[in-house]
Amino acid sequence: MRDFKTLTWDILPCWYELSWDAEHVGIILRVHQDFINTVKPIPSDARIFEGYEEVFGFTDFQTGFDKDFGFDNSFLRLGEKDGFVEFFIKIPAIKFITAETCDDCNGSGHDEFRDGKCFHCNGTGKVVRYRYQEAQKISATFSVFFMLARGTKHETSAKIPQLMTVVTSTRPGMHGGAMGGEFSIPLTKWLCSVGSAGGQVEILAVSEAMARAWDHMYELGELDRYYTRAWVADEYGWLNTQCPGNATGLAAEWNSGHDVKEGKGYRFSGHNVDTAGQQLTLLAGLAALHDLAREAIDLEI
Known about the structure:
The protein has 301 residues and is an alpha+beta fold. It has two domains: 16-94 and 131-296, no CATH class; 95-130, no CATH class. Helices cover 28% and strands 25% of the residues. The protein is built from seven helices and 15 strands. The strands form four sheets. Strands 9-10-15-14-13-12-11 form a seven-stranded antiparallel sheet. Strands 1-2-6-5 form a four-stranded antiparallel sheet. Strand 5 (76-81) and strand 6 form a beta hairpin. Helix 5 (204-217) runs antiparallel to helix 7. The relative contact order is 0.17.
């Protein structure tokens, strides 16, 4: 017999969950008080913080859950509700239109060789710049939290089950926003029911959350919208999500080690998640998925 429990093989009481706030364009993180009481805090001089300081220049990390959390307090503490401490994480803007004149079109915004619109400034006539630091701070804070919450030795007193876990990384370069995680037994069962209609069943609320997040960070173009969607492939409950990038998205790990039909959960992983912006877009989708599933799954433990 196994002497340990895992999310894909056991139904566990919730220790954290994600939620999507479409009105304020942000993610809400809820952390159960029992988990906070038992988790071992990370020392402020831990090597992981030194690594982020060396690579990104981040210097201030608030490690406790009694006030704002993370790099530059990027997770804003909202308060406590139903045994959970809630934090709000605002999706930041990444693309900025400056006051500088675009050199390629001399400020006209026109390019006769590209359907009349300048490729570099997208017709604005101004220089467009991308600032990733705020998104990277949020991504790095998520990475630290998910590391803390990767597994818990002490079950919480929550009456609702943990629906998913997530793990992320934050680093420069290719796969700089890599991510993955696990879907629980109840969530997988619900995904199977969604996919039972056959074919590719789009989950519109998840697609819309990702599109909203991307639009806030970058401005959603027509082609971006086409490539930003989430769907369940079939009755096996395999969730697929994608966002703008080089085949960027999340999908089930086919070597999860069991068949979903046996009533288990499964692991998922990311593909070509290169930036913090792509990672936050996919996290917004997972948060919206969590909202749908939490409402649909009638289960107390």
